[in-house]
Amino acid sequence: MRLVILFLLTFTSLFALKYDYIIPEPVLQERMKKEFPIVHKTMLLTFHVSNPKLYLDGKKQRFNFTGQLQIPNIQDEKGNAVSAVVSVSSRIAYTKGGNLYLRKIKVVDIKSKFIGTDMKSMLYGTMDQLLNEYFKSRPIYSLEKEKGMVGAAVESIDNVVIVKDGVKIIFNLG
């Protein structure tokens, strides 16, 4: 009886095919650059976010990037648009059709010698809302046009995780 159960477990595991595919961080960095600059106007301010620099955190499963923020409506003492470095963190989500999206985007830091604490606290919420809305329907990467096994398996995505070298797509072909 034990032999039969062992045989069945071995036999069924042969058909539970898992396949992993890693999207390298440099490929994701290039894809991020295509989404920028982001320009958003509110009643009072205009935001320009550009030059994204991606860094992935596999331990916390976070898709992080920094960007250059300029607010032309606010000027420094030389009359130049105020600028800042914005650090952003998000989760990554996927659809069975092979699209990867940024979700739960959160601005975690704004560094600028020209933007005070009160202004920063207002910017956090505004920037969170702006980035979440912007990336809501824009995939950060799409597997739809991939060829070979990856292209054929987009409907079989089981999970997406952030690893040291990029984003790992786990397919369950069984």
Describe the structure.
The strands form two sheets. The chain has a six-stranded antiparallel beta sheet with strand order 2-3-4-5-6-7. A three-stranded antiparallel beta sheet has the order 1-9-8. The protein has a domain at 27-144: Bactericidal permeability-increasing protein, domain 1. Helix content is 28%, strand content 46%. The protein has four helices and nine strands. The chain is α+β, with helices and mostly antiparallel strands. Strand 3 (46-57) and strand 4 (62-75) form a beta hairpin. It is elongated, with a radius of gyration of 21 Å.
Quickly describe the structure.
28% of the residues lie in helices and 46% in strands. It has 174 residues and is an alpha+beta fold.
Largest sheet: 6 strands, antiparallel
Enter the CATH topology name of one domain.
Answer: Bactericidal permeability-increasing protein, domain 1
Number-wise, the strands total 9
As a percent range, the share of helical residues equals 25-40%
Strand content: over 45%
Give the CATH architecture of one domain.
Answer: Super Roll
Helix-strand category: alpha+beta
- Figure out the total of helices: 4
Radius of gyration, in angstroms, nearest whole number: 21 Å
Strand order of the largest sheet: 2-3-4-5-6-7
Name of the top-level CATH class of one domain: Alpha Beta
> N-to-C SSE series?
HEHEEEEEHEHEE
